[in-house]
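tokens incoming
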């Protein structure tokens, strides 16, 4: 009788594990953030770079448009997009927020000293926690928001000249 119970328990356990395995295989594993476009970003808590104060959506809503750029000093493509960010700095309807991602503060400061600081506000995301709220899974990435914190567009990879023209077109409307 005990052998039957053990065999039945093993059978149930194996069946359960196989079921979990096949359900896992049928799920879409491709991570996509295109669903963010048109949605409001909520629960924003960015930590300021120098004084480590918390910056929330109330603080961000001060301009008509906001571009949040996730970058790091160790990121080669971040250096490529930097001149575009410096040009965007000149746009009056746009507030540039830079989130330094998983970087050493001294390296980030040296990066900005050497290349220029395009950001109206600078934040620090030491472990990548803030990036999750914006669907960031690599850098550089940027998110363009309107004053209601609705995602207009998400830019994956370094900003290009065509991205610059797109952003200018949106903020001039």
């Amino acid at each position: 009788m005990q052998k039957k119970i053990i065999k039945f328990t093993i059978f149930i356990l194996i069946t359960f594990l196989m079921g979990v395995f096949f359900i896992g295989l049928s799920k879409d594993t491709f991570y996509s953030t295109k669903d963010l476009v048109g949605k409001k970003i909520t629960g924003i808590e960015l930590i300021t770079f120098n004084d480590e104060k918390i910056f929330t959506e109330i603080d961000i809503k001060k301009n008509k448009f906001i571009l949040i750029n996730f970058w790091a000093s160790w990121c080669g493509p971040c250096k490529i997009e930097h001149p575009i960010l410096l040009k965007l700095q000149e746009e009056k309807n746009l507030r540039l927020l830079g989130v330094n991602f998983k970087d050493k503060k001294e390296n980030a400061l040296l990066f900005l000293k050497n290349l220029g600081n395009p950001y109206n506000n600078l934040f620090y995301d030491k472990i990548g926690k803030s990036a999750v709220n914006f669907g960031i899974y690599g850098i550089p990435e940027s998110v363009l928001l309107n004053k209601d914190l609705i995602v207009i567009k998400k830019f994956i990879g370094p900003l290009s000249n065509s991205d610059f023209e797109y952003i200018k077109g949106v903020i001039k409307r």
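note: The longest helix spans residues 2-26.
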